[in-house]
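Throughout our pipeline, every protein is held as a single compact record rather than as scattered files. Such a record has a labelled line for the sequence and another for the backbone structure tokens. The remainder of this section carries one protein's record, kept here as part of the documentation:
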Amino acid sequence: MSSRFACSLTTLMLGLTLLTFLGDRAHADTIEPNFGGQKSSMDKDGNLRLELAASLNAPVAKVYEALTNPDKLSKYTAEITSVKVLSNSATGKVVEYHGTTNLNPNKKPYVIKYTFDPGKQTITAQSADNAAIKFRADYVLSSSKDGKSTEIRYVSVSADPSKALGMSVPEFMRKSAGIEAFMRNLANAGKYIQNGGK
């Protein structure tokens, strides 16, 4: 596959991802992605690092509350059929998800550990130690100057999923899946906020 074709395909996939999440009129003005700040790199072991940024049109306290309730956000993802909170504290949660997603192609329950820092307004999501596909994602929130919206800086590092999936996964597909996961989570946070934290 030529690099020009791969670049065109990646651009098309990003556009389709953006349309998918922003096409819903009720949430069209909620998220403003910033793909200009997108960076990605791959290390020698196949770990993909992805950096993204976006704005969510809600105060930082509401966005932080939404992102620290991943179990409640999951109800907006059709592929997740049920969730179970395994542990819960002011500084984190461990959540078990059931359903078929990119992280769970075999339909087995998968566990994600979340760590929260209310002072720094950060949220970290990390795969459990025994997960088939290893990843870590960090959200850093900051308030806009007027306090009405939230700037979100996102950095994820994910291991090569080829072995777990039983096939080679090109870098552009992994980047697209990472962007989709980020946008889906922000779209779900927007829905959670618009529905009064439900």
Q: What stands out?
A: The CA atoms of residues 125 and 182 lie 11 Å apart. Residues 171-194 form the longest helix (24 residues). The domain at 3-194 is CATH 3.30.530.20 (Alpha-D-Glucose-1,6-Bisphosphate; Chain A, domain 4).
